[in-house]
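Follow-up to my earlier ticket, as requested here are the two runs.
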Amino acid sequence: MRRMILLAGLIFALGVLVPGSGLAGENGSNLPLKGSSAGPCTTNFATGAARCVTTGPSSHFGLSTMEQDIQLIPTGPGTFDWLAS
């Protein structure tokens, strides 16, 4: 019985101490969001409006779907800025 209590205590202590290394830094810093996604975009070149729906994994959300409405703004020959919402 004592061995079981000792083992349970060690497992609990390990579970409490190890996740501390993954916490955020001071003032909420060091929270990188990493991920990638892929999917189709539909673009209207006459108006510069585009809509994208992409899916992929990310570190905080797991498998996610992202929808973006984008406005392409011509800035010169062959170059664009874009505004997404």
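Run two:
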Amino acid sequence: MGDTPLEQEVTGRWVVHNNYLELHFMQTQASVKAPAGRYEAIYLLGVDRESGQYQLHLFDALAWLPDSGAWKMLLGETDAPGHWHEFAVKFMRRRLAA
């Protein structure tokens, strides 16, 4: 990113009763090493039924942590003046079938 080209695989599908187009971005270029793992993002694109305006929800705070076999997710929100506030950090691991 920035001056470094970022190669990504992008897939799309309709979700939430076909109200949103989900676009999933995954870094594919092995030579670019992100500190917290490969870059990944999910965009949800939809239309506000009342205003007719497009909405874009961006979820890109996921990082793969290969040493622990987990995904790290930062959760936050923007307040009315536009300031970002982180309110949680989640670590997600695959649950093995019993």
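The only thing I checked on run two: The chain is about 0% helix and 55% strand. Let me know what else you need.
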